[in-house]
Amino acid sequence: MATTNRIRTLTALAAASTVIGLTAGCSTGDAGTTTTNSPTSGTSDREGGTSTSGAAAAGEADYRDGDYEATGEYGGLPSHLDVAVTIADGDIADVTVTPTATNETSLGYQQDFADAVPDVVIGKPLAEVSVGKLAGSSSCGDGFNDALEQIREQAAV
Description:
The protein has helices at 2-24, 54-57, 104-121, 140-155; strands at 66-74, 79-88, 91-99.
């Protein structure tokens, strides 16, 4: 009997974890709060939007102009976002984030994030951009940053 109860408890916990993971997508974290990235050196932008690192701010990275695409993964499932960036003179001239979630809640977070990103990153040096919590989404920034890292590798001179 005790073994049966343990199995039921473990099954219920596993099912609950799956549901939480599926709905977390780009979860809000703390409702209504905004956090900013805390780089070891550099500056932060509004609403956790961007931060710069000391090496990037010193202009150590050079990138070829052009259009680049990458898929950034984040979370435990993993979730992902498709990111397209146009680079001009080392700066982000244009950006498009394409939501990919199939869960309605996650899709909503991804769409809100996608709508907010251009205002935060366009005109910023590619070498310096790192997005944190944005538009109520605490996790989408991780996927965006993963895609940017791939784009930096593609565009490196």
